[in-house]
Amino acid sequence: xxxxxxxxxxxxxxxxxxxxxxxxxxxxxxxxxxxxxxxxxxxxxxxxxxxxxxxxxxxxxxxxxxxxxxxxxxxxxxxxxxxxxxxxxxxxxxxxxxxxxxxxxxxxxxxxxxxxxxxxxxxxxxxxxxxxxxxxxxxxxxxxxxxxxxxxxxxxxxxxxxxxxxxxxxxxxxxxxxxxxxxxxxxxxxxxxxxxxxxxxxxxxxxxxxxxxxxxxxxxxxxxxxxxxxxxxxxxxxxxxxxxxxxxxxxxxxxxxxxxxxxxxxxxxxxxxxxxxxxxxxxxxxxxxxxxxxxxxxxxxxxxxxxxxxxxxxxxxxxxxxxxxxxxxxxxxxxxxxxxxxxxxxxxxxxxxxxxxxxxxxxxxxxxxxxxxxxxxxxxxxxxxxxxxxxxxxxxxxxxxxxx
Length: 404
Prior knowledge:
45% helix, Transcription Elongation Factor S-II, Chain A, Rossmann fold, alpha/beta, 2 domains
């Protein structure tokens, strides 16, 4: 709840959300009426009641029905996840994202995203040639850990000071993993590769790849999504998966969350890179998106930008996710949705709290929110004694595979 005094949840409303509004106003030359709407929104967050949407847009009835459950409350007396998600929807109303005119469809966070993407590609260019020379299993582990630690780059979270490029130092970060199923993840793929290879040799089955589909439930642009793409490229080019699906946001959300157009832009930037191996990566990803291949698919659904948790996963989307052989959940928000954003005891087994999400799934999360499960009894208390902000400062992470 945002009403919890001294909590990170409360701080996000008091400090982070007004700063996000200020940055949006600084980035764009909005007309006076949009500036006035943003300023009024800022004042409402500081001292007013949560008000409903008033614009004409397809999702207004959905949001106002959920707003009605919190009518009469202030922004500092609401469930944290609802407050955060509704903030981003109200921000889109203020900047007229859905309305006819010059600001329709203009991402208020685009300039910040472009900065992150440019920095991420520059970082990748310095190491990609060396990464590609690694043996496959070692390369997979490095890309897996880079996809995890790259998630530290989060434009909606000003408290995370760790540099995202540290994700490239996978071995140096192992001590910061509270749960580390790296070897189990490697075995998940290796066992299937070995089994299919053996069956092919015996000619007992048609020639097929080891894993049919891997689904990424993506999070941020920048280093985060860049290593999602690099990991997807590895799975496809090594034959560890036949198809990869990215589940992305359908509209701006949590500042740096990736939309399909963000991913497509990054791929074009990779193709134009001066470093030949980086450009080759971009060309492979571009070709994977083509209808002739379609081995990489970008998709979205309004659920991903809603206030619903995975306990309320729509049946059609659940069925779509269930088709994959493995689901990779990126980031803190997806972890919060998995656990209904509740303060489960830290030693709760994740299987007892995960809304029966389709399995197997793999969690890649850096800790930037006040919930965590799956720890040993007493482990949370030890961590708190060592570092009072261990749940929110982005230093620690987890690689957790749940198969049954």
